[in-house]
Design a protein that fits this description.
The chain is α/β, with parallel strands linked by helices. It folds into two domains: 3-108, Winged helix-like DNA-binding domain superfamily/Winged helix DNA-binding domain (Arc Repressor Mutant, subunit A), CATH 1.10.10; 117-254, Response regulator (Rossmann fold). Helix 2 (16-27) packs across helix 4, helix 7 crosses helix 10 and helix 8 crosses helix 10. The chain has helices spanning 3-13, 16-27, 35-42, 46-58, 77-90, 102-109, 132-143, 162-170, 200-205, 230-254, and strands at 33-34, 62-67, 70-75, 112-114, 120-126, 148-154, 192-197, 213-218, 261-263. Strands 6-5-7-8 form a four-stranded parallel sheet. The protein has a three-stranded antiparallel sheet with strand order 1-3-2. It has a two-stranded antiparallel sheet with strand order 4-9. Helix content is 44%, strand content 17%. The chain contains ten helices and nine strands.
Length: 268
């Protein structure tokens, strides 16, 4: 890769929304996404998304393939790899202190190291990280704080639903610190021992993602926020809270305590 091509690629990534589009496509690898799927995932107007996709395509970072009346966009791994080599091998002249391998860093986090205070790392995942995964995070943190370090995330994070906080507080469950997180903040940076996908939509999307944990399970629960009407919606939130509590309690009873070792992970 020459300097001109590298500058063009870096320039295409030097905008917040465009970088978000690129990171979303990276997660879906060679499969990619149709423009409509991207617009829905990122909640971007079609005209704005088209503008960003054009820049990424012209920079050689994204490939566009027409499929009938739609266009599928996917990462171009050759350009991305060339850019990483340009920045790491060429610019850094092979000096390890400046261009440590990302793959080596990820592999290092997976190596077991002694840790007498080990708490297994658990992830709860849903589409918006606004209700089900937030409830599960709070419930498990309350039930087994000494055994598990618990996180939750969403594929398209939104604000935590007010009823999520209400139904947790009704049972004395902790709500401090609960906020919506993007799965992209965790992928490749943390090694989870257990991952539970708690909504059907996220379960379908997980087919495009790398394995999230050594133990990964689907725990689909209905979306309480989709229930119409104030009173039925509140009842739905309570029902999901109680169902999650029952499921987590059963899982704790059947799961051995974590071993006294852990994987290297990035600090939170």
């Amino acid at each position: 890769m020459d300097s001109k091509t590298a500058v063009r690629a870096l320039g295409a990534l030097a905008q917040q929304s465009r970088l978000r589009v690129f990171r979303t496509l990276v997660r879906h690898g060679s499969t990619g996404l149709h423009a409509g799927e991207l617009a829905s995932l990122l909640d971007l107007p079609s005209s704005t998304l088209s503008f960003h996709l054009r820049d990424l395509t012209e920079a050689g970072l994204v490939a566009a393939t027409r499929e009938g009346r739609s266009i599928r966009y996917a990462l171009r791994p050759d350009t991305w790899t060339d850019l990483l080599w340009f920045l790491g091998e060429d610019c850094c002249q092979g000096r390890p202190a400046l261009c440590a391998s990302p793959a080596a860093r990820i592999a290092a986090r997976l190596q077991p190291v002694p840790d007498a205070a080990h708490r297994a790392l658990v992830l709860f995942l849903c589409s918006h990280n606004s209700a089900r995964s937030q409830m599960a995070e709070s419930i498990l943190r309350h039930a087994a704080p000494d055994r598990y370090d618990v996180r939750s995330a969403g594929l398209r994070p939104a604000t935590v639903h007010p009823l999520t906080l209400r139904v947790l507080q009704e049972k004395g469950l902790p709500t401090n610190g609960l906020h919506s997180k993007d799965l992209g903040e965790l992928l490749g940076k943390m090694s989870f021992d257990h991952a539970f996908v708690v909504c059907p939509t996220a379960e379908a999307d997980c087919a495009h993602l790398p394995q999230l944990a050594r133990d990964q399970q689907a725990w689909p629960f209905p979306d309480p926020a989709a229930v119409p009407g104030a009173r039925p919606k509140l009842a739905a939130f309570r029902a999901v809270r109680d169902a999650l509590t029952e499921r987590i309690t059963g899982w704790l009873a059947s799961t051995p305590a974590p071993r006294k070792s852990r994987s290297r992970r990035a600090s939170a």
